[in-house]
Amino acid sequence: xxxxxxxxxxxxxxxxxxxxxxxxxxxxxxxxxxxxxxxxxxxxxxxxxxxxxxxxxxxxxxxxxxxxxxxxxxxxxxxxxxxxxxxxxxxxxxxxxxxxxxxxxxxxxxxxxxxxxxxxxxxxxxxxxxxxxxxxxxxxxxxxxxxxxxxxxxxxxxxxxxxxxxxxxxxxxxxxxxxxxxxxxxxxxxxxxxxxxxxxxxxxxxxxxxxxxxxxxxxxxxxxxxxxxxxxxxxxxxxxxxxxxxxxxxxxxxxxxxxxxxxxxxxxxxxxxxxxx
Length: 277
Description:
- With 277 residues, the protein is of the alpha/beta class.
- It has 8 helices and 9 strands.
């Protein structure tokens, strides 16, 4: 189906009845090719069927399918070429969200790249996300040229300079906000038309739109860090019951390049930390 039809259908899918279905986390991989840490992710997901869904947006001429027993087998959605920093990047993110929304059991949606890894085991990540009352979208006012300097006055009055925000591309959102993103017909055309390099739409669209549509439902931080580490400064965590301080602010980490040896060392470290057998 066309992107427009996909987005329309995704916007209309009702939320699953909680008493009948267990809430799932949708793991959405936006990749340039394969998933180099596939072994690590497969171990992460093992034994937790029914609590997660996997979606992959990859280059149309990407690598062959993984083995049939892999959680990544036949999880690639209909994809189109993507240019980093261009509107096609935003289109790919919305395409992933829309496909994931078609499953009414998906309640949380996290965007990851092929170089992302989980920093904790599945139960820890699942409980952290499902138990949160907020989404995790980095959104802040950057007064520098790389922030406010990218704003185009042609976006006014739909988006004003005071509303302009910047943030990390790697987000995690709850279902209600995901529906708002794929059903957006007001802000998306403005960003697609007027946010072109040196304005990078993946760094500004979601941070700005989320700040406008649901400021009280966002933690204003990402759960993905661009380094391989678990520790971080303390942050506020709002569960469905109360508001506390969390010592773990990041659930995933991303690094641009990794050698084969580096990947092996990382998997070995994860095996030790997660008590693999």
